[in-house]
Amino acid sequence: MNTYLDFEKPIAELEGKIKELRHVSASGEEINIADEIGRLQNKVERLLQNTYSKLTPWQKTLVARHPERPHTKDYIENLIEDFTPLAGDRLYAEDCAVMGGLGRFEGHSVVVIGHEKGNTTTSRVKHNFGMARPEGYRKAQRLMDMAERFHLPIVTFIDTMGAFPGADAEERGQSEAIARSIEKCLNVKVPFTSIVIGEGGSGGAIAIACANDIYMLEHSVYSVISPEGCASILWRSNDYTESAADALNITAQDLHRLGVIDNVIAEPLGGAHRNHEQTFQSVRKVLDQSIREQLTHDGGVLKARRREKFLAMGRVGAA
Fold first, then answer.
1. Rounded to an integer, what distance in angstroms lies between the CA atom of residue 195 and that of residue 75?
2. Can you tell me the distance from the alpha carbon of 80 to that of 78, in angstroms, rounded to the nearest whole number?
3. Beta strands 221-223; 192-201: pairing state
4. Checking phi first, is residue 91 left (phi over 0); if not, alpha (psi -120 to 50) or beta?
5. At CA 60, angle to CA 282 and CA 270, rounded to 5?
6. For a tag site, which of 11, 147, 205, 288 has the least CB within 10 Å?
7. Which residues contact 260 (CB under 8 A, 6 or more apart)?
8. What is the 3-state secondary structure of 265-287?
9. 3-state SS string over 173-188?
10. Helix (H, G, I), strand (E, B) or coil at 1
11. d(Cα 196, Cα 23) in Å, to the nearest integer?
């Protein structure tokens, strides 16, 4: 069954009617309903266009969290050939919230790293809902070291509410692991591309997103804190979640305007969850272009440009 968000209720009703009509048609009854189905389908498309062209920041957050939206595992399966997962941080344990390994993309050997939320109850628990512990970020550092050693481009997929806030993670040095991961991102001398495919939350996201090229899917979000977290701190109430989302400038369009990301990747009508294949093809095109362009530059140049990119953001903020 399709999952509909609250603001999609009119769309859900129309698509429900279309399914009923198709069921009647399939039952063999002599009723010509093709024209009616076509009319309703056109109405659905107009509703989707009108609704998704006017999404509020909070509504975009809900779309970014949609349970049917493609996750890192899906992108790897559809974009990366001969993927070989690599596990463990060689210090403590394996963290399933961060996937990583070696593969081939459009003829290039690459290192791929990404947050994985899972898509069933069992897999969500296994992947800790995409919230990594310190060993996840230390695994990412290990894979980035490997990429630099063998001169391989790095591709990261960002999709997390944030790093895991539990006591065990803090005991094992969560903040240090994130800081070291950011440092590693800034220092590797290989092509580096990051794509926010859903939710980019706090240091848990930026820990593997300090790249030369940073892209966001059209209905993804990226922020220092979730709208709920912001509302609970500033107003001590979740009643102001939508107000917090409005104030945080978390949408792909806001962040592109502010120069935090390089470009926005268009999603299919109604969001990435409605057409996975079209989304994969859009990401493939952008990723291929990014890697090819970066491969024309020396590693030292890539590192210098990456560091300058983030230093420039700081100077704008200070001004």
1. 11
2. 6
3. parallel
4. alpha
5. 50
6. 288
7. 214, 222, 313
8. ECCCCCCHHHCHHHHHHHHHHHH
9. CHHHHHHHHHHHHHHC
10. coil
11. 38
Residue where the block lists tokens 């030369």: 212
- CB-neighbour burial class of residue 192 (10 A; exposed 0-12, middle 13-18, buried 19+): buried
201 in Cβ contact with 161 (< 8 Å): yes
Name residue, tokens 């491969």: 295
Q: Is the pLDDT of residue 26 over 70?
A: no
Residue 239 to residues 164, 181, 199, Cα–Cα distance (Å): 24, 35, 21
Six-digit token string for 9: 């209720």
The model's pLDDT over 136-179, given as tens digits with 9 standing for 90+, comes to: 999 999 999 999 999 999 999 999 999 999 999 999 999 999 99
43 burial level (CB within 10 Å; 0-12, 13-18, 19+): middle
8-state DSSP, 8: G
Mean pLDDT over all residues of the chain? Answer: 92
Rounded to whole angstroms, how far apart are CA atoms 312 and 310? Answer: 5
The DSSP symbol for 251 reads B
CA dist 311 and 316 (Å) reads 9
How far apart are the C-alpha atoms of 200 and 216, rounded to whole Å?
9
Cα–Cα–Cα angle for 166, 193, 221, nearest 5°? 55
Amino acid residing at 100? G
Instruction: Dig out the tokens for 216 from the structure.
Output: 């966001």
Question: pLDDT per residue over 178-216, tens digit each?
Answer: 999 999 999 999 999 999 999 998 889 999 999 999 999
Cβ–Cβ under 8 Å, residues 200 and 72: no
